[in-house]
Structures are given as structure tokens and as C-alpha cells.
Design goal:
Shape: globular
Distance between the termini: 28 Å
Strand content: under 5%
Number of helices: 12
Structural class: mainly alpha
Mean pLDDT: 84
Length: about 200
């Protein structure tokens, strides 16, 4: 419930606490985002997906929605009484059997060299194909993204992070760059920001 509460507070009212939103979405997408979505839905009677959709825009929104993993409202109308019963059942099962449910998993058949080439193509020449970048980055596990980073450097002789920073802007840049960091790099970056 902690992460659902933090996500809600990051988007509640005017404006968005983008640092909080990005941090939680990145840190939890490969761990337990489906559980967070469920807590969010039960606690706030609206889906995380819809709140992100209402509070963000552009490619930044599209990337966050992919990390979110889906719209819980598509299941049908929300019934608070049923939700309270379901939440109590979920709490009981969560105490006895912890099974984390991510929204990002390792891509079954992926080729880091092909992904590196596709990323370079998306950034080469006039304009940037943000859709191609988003589609690759959010559909790979962190380990796979790290392999793509190494392959990009060895195959193309370029620094993927520098290329992404030069081609993307604002919140989308922060989100994609954060996704491309290792967990340790991301944690160090967040600690540095907290100290500043």
C-alpha cells in the first residue's frame, strides 16, 4: 500500500511530482507493479492507469502507461463493497504467500545487437523516433537493457546514454535514462538528488 499511496500523492491535485512518479514506476515495474495497481485501485477507487493518463502527456505518458501495464478499469464498473472484500482476501494471501507480480519481464526472444541497431536508427538523422525507443526500452528487463547498452558501445562505438540524452527531452528523457541505469546507478542518482 506504501507505493500506491506515494503514487497517488505524486499525482493528486495540481501538478505532478515527476521525480516520485518516475522513481516508483521504474523501481517497481520489474518487481510488483501489478500488486501496486491492485492496491491503488482498492484504496482510491480509480485505476493507476487512468490517473497517469489524466495527469501526464505525450510520449512521457505513453511510456509510463506501458510501465503501468494496463488499465484496471477495462474490467468493468468498480464496486466498493466487492473491493473491500477482495482487499481483505488479498491482505490475507499477501501475508502467507508473497508472490510478486511485475509488469516488465525479460523479453523471450530478443537480440541485443538488433535492438542496438534499432535504437541507433531511431536517433540517427533528422528527428527522433521516440516510439521506437520507447517500444524497445520498456519491453526489456533491466538486465537486457544493460546488455543493449554494452552492445551499443561495442558494436557502434557510441555511448547510448549520451545519444539518448541528446535526442530526448524533459520528462521523457529522465524516464528513459533512468530505465537504462542499473539499479545501483539509479539508487545512487536518487540519493544524490535527495541530498542536493
Amino acid at each position: 500500500m506504501f507505493f500506491a499511496k506515494r503514487l497517488y500523492k505524486s499525482m493528486k491535485g495540481l501538478g505532478t511530482a515527476d521525480h516520485t512518479l518516475i522513481r516508483i514506476m521504474i523501481c517497481r515495474a520489474e518487481i510488483d507493479m501489478l500488486d501496486i495497481r491492485e492496491c491503488f485501485r482498492l484504496g482510491y477507487e480509480k485505476s493507476l492507469y487512468n490517473m497517469i493518463q489524466e495527469d501526464t502527456s505525450g510520449d512521457y505518458k505513453r511510456t509510463l502507461l506501458q510501465l503501468c501495464g494496463g488499465d484496471d478499469d477495462l474490467a468493468g464498473e468498480f464496486f466498493p463493497e466487492a473491493a473491500q472484500i477482495a482487499y481483505k482476501m488479498w491482505e490475507l494471501s499477501a501475508m502467507t504467500n508473497v508472490q510478486l507480480r511485475p509488469t516488465i519481464m525479460s523479453a523471450a526472444a530478443y537480440d541485443p545487437a538488433a535492438d542496438a541497431q534499432a535504437l541507433r536508427k531511431a536517433m540517427k538523422g533528422f528527428g527522433t523516433d521516440e516510439d521506437a525507443i520507447i517500444d524497445i526500452v520498456v519491453r526489456r528487463s533491466n538486465a537486457q537493457r544493460q546488455e543493449i547498452r554494452r552492445t551499443f558501445k561495442s558494436l557502434l562505438g557510441r555511448d547510448l546514454m549520451k545519444d539518448l540524452k541528446s535526442e530526448l527531452s524533459k520528462n521523457l528523457e529522465r524516464l528513459i535514462i533512468a530505465l537504462m541505469l542499473t539499479p545501483a546507478e539509479f539508487d545512487a542518482k536518487m540519493m544524490r538528488k535527495a541530498i542536493e
